[in-house]
Write a structure and sequence with these properties.
The chain has 621 residues and is of the alpha+beta class. The chain is built from 15 helices and 17 strands. A hairpin with a 4-residue loop joins strand 2 and strand 3. It starts with 48 loop residues before the first helix and ends in a 31-residue tail after the last helix.
Length: 621
Amino acid sequence: MGVFNGVKSVLIDAWGWANYKPIYSDALGMPHRRAFPEAAASWVPAEDERRLAAYKLLAAYANNQAAELAQFRDGDGARERREYGDPSLFIEAVLAHVLGDEQTIVVPGAEQTAAQDDTGTDHAMAERVQTLLRAWAVEELLPMRIMQTERKAVTHGDGVYLLAWDPAKGRVRCKTYDPGFYFPVLGEDGDATDYPERVHLAWELPEDKKRGLKPRLRRITYELGWIRPATASGVDRTGRPVRAPLMTEPDDGTPAQPILGAGDTVTPDGLIARQYLWNDAPSYVTCYLTDATWDLGDLKGPHDVDDLPMDKARFATNAAGEVLDQLDLYADFLPIVHVPNTVPDAEEHWGTSSLAKVLQVFDELSGTDTDSAKASATTGSPILAISGRGANGRRSEMAVAPGTVLELGENGRLDTVDTSPQLAELRNRTTELSERAATIARLPAVALGTVNPSEVPSGYALEISLGPLNSLVGAMRLARAHKYALLLKMVQRLSLAGQHPDWTGIRPQPAELAFGPYTPTDKAAVLDQVTNAVNGGVMSLETGIRILTEAGWPMEDAETEIQLIQSRRFEAARQLADATGSSKAVGDYLGIDIAPDPAPPLPELPATTGTSPEPGVLPAE
């Protein structure tokens, strides 16, 4: 056994791509404690230490600070390494292609017109939900929130959204958190891809000497649990704000009984049931919120983020004066959405950074850039070698500057060391490494903007070169599709729970976030294809409008665009009138009110004497 002491174990996990760096993986496979002190905090679970260290390592590369981390192990000489922003370029390129030109909230069925449906009920509801969600996205600056979270996801491999109802603003608020603050409690027996039932958002707060505050740990916890009786804000014996159960007044020997929350009922089994607006059947669970802080000095002993001493916690209070100690949110879901950058591996919860597989290439690039900088110094200011004596019998000054004249005597000689060939080779090496990194990351030169458009032989060749990028973006958008559908579902439910007047009578609808195109589009070709397909009857006008919108045509609203098109298609309206004979159908098609055609007047005939005239004989006057 002693022979194997100190042997480094090989760790193959979601963060194994960084094991090649000694500062990240020491003899025991753990990160350097001085370089990553946050990951080594006493309250951080052991299984999250490598994850947090990997986040910091990736952030250092993205911000040109990898040399600062290397200094902890390699000394001050590591600070001389050049970092020219290649990782940041890759991050922004991947981010731009994943998000596309724009992001649009789409509710299936919202673009259908009521005239094309027997009842129009479902389409009308879908259109209303889509309008409300798009209005909410504008007020909440959703595109900016998406970019903030997606930049974290592309860089670190994970992004986190938090949704909460804000009574003051009257809408759902969307916040983004650093994934290093995200600590889900994943069951050992369950699938890691399942939605967790308990999630912590935790981070350390620095010491504030002006306010007399010590270093603290803040933890916000969302967890699902059985519905319990109602509680109210109170204080414990030490004066600490807590929540206490509400009880009835005892009467005639009847002991005090717990009070149920509004709308809650007790089942024959003794469980408390609640009917949520978005469910057809009653539910027995709800989400509880706890927001507390601890002094780091009080966290002694084997405690981690999921097992902190609650008797030492100080609970926060929201704007309504409610103590955030197991506060019932009246929702049966956790309002947190974790967005992985890639499709997680089987039994894995975390995504993978877009930089993970190319970090070693970036290290080689940094070393080559450093060597190039040194070689360019000797090329611009070459090394001189003087042999012989000066004309005046003594050596001239050795410092050489522009305009310096050196007098050389008989047999004197001046030699220079030419390092330009080495500099050219280093530049070629830089180009080779850049192309290698782009190939590994599946980012062709055209995607990075480093190719001259005139050098592309044809559009077909360009399309073939974009093949790796298409597969990359397709896989990354697949990992995000159901996450954003879940986020929009939560926005609808929280709006109903907040009893916003605009959401009265709303039935939640499936919604998705559609990402725009990420490659140049031939708009004229797309328009020609859509026109032929719609006129040929093999494509609906709604589908054609959607394709044109995705191709970049400026159409604010598909429904409005369809109505404007139909209002000018009089020939189609005439054919509709001939086919149906209904003025109302034609009016609905054209978007105008058409009064029903009046009944033709009855002919007024002269009075008769009761006898019919013979054929061909006029009646007598």
